[in-house]
Amino acid sequence: MIDITDLLKACRFETSRSSGPGGQHVNKTESKVSMYFDIEASALTPEQRAIIHQKYPTRINIAGELYLQSYASRSQAANKEAAILKFQKLIDTALIPPKKRHKTKRSKASIEARLAGKKLQGVKKQNRSNRLDM
């Protein structure tokens, strides 16, 4: 797990007016928070940077920044906190090492059950044919 406080030093936050219904309040307050994380200027190793580029190509803009936004709450502070939590979750899930697959053989019983099912299916199809045996 990576310390999020080191990564937040490479982040920049912008606020804007949120979309959707809300009338006068939503039209005059800047509650939407956009977060830009500069991947190259961060405390990540080159391997970790490559993993993030590979896992989230659609979230990375032309400038090489990971882009997140939050506008669920009416409060700018709550949206900033939500964006940070979303960012932390993204980084943590991206940098979890994948589990190695252990090759296993099919059991003899499962092979026999599969073949028995195929045999029954074949018999069913055979019985559907309109052949006259003389």
Provide a compact summary of the structure.
This protein has 134 residues and is of the alpha+beta class. The protein has helices at 4-8, 24-28, 46-55, 76-94, 108-128; strands spanning 11-16, 32-38, 65-70.
Layout of secondary structure:
Layout lengths: L3 H5 L2 E6 L7 H5 L3 E7 L7 H10 L9 E6 L5 H19 L13 H21 L6
Antiparallel strand pairs: 1-2, 2-3
Describe it.
- With 134 residues, the chain is of the alpha+beta class.
- It has a domain of 91 residues: Double Stranded RNA Binding Domain (2-Layer Sandwich).
- Helix content is 45%, strand content 14%.
- A 3-stranded antiparallel sheet has the order 1-2-3, covered by helices on one side.
- The relative contact order is 0.14.
- The mean pLDDT is 89.
Low-confidence stretches: none
Under CATH at level 1, the class of one domain stands as Alpha Beta
Shape: elongated
Mean pLDDT over the full residue set: 89
CATH topology of one domain, what is it called?
Double Stranded RNA Binding Domain
Radius of gyration: 27 Å
Structural class: alpha+beta
- String of helices and strands: HEHEHEHH
Oligomeric state of the chains present here: single chain
- The end-to-end span amounts to 76 Å
The CATH level-2 architecture of one domain is identified as 2-Layer Sandwich
| Structure annotation, total helices | 5
Keywords:
single chain; 134 residues; alpha+beta; Double Stranded RNA Binding Domain; 3-stranded antiparallel β-sheet; 5 helices
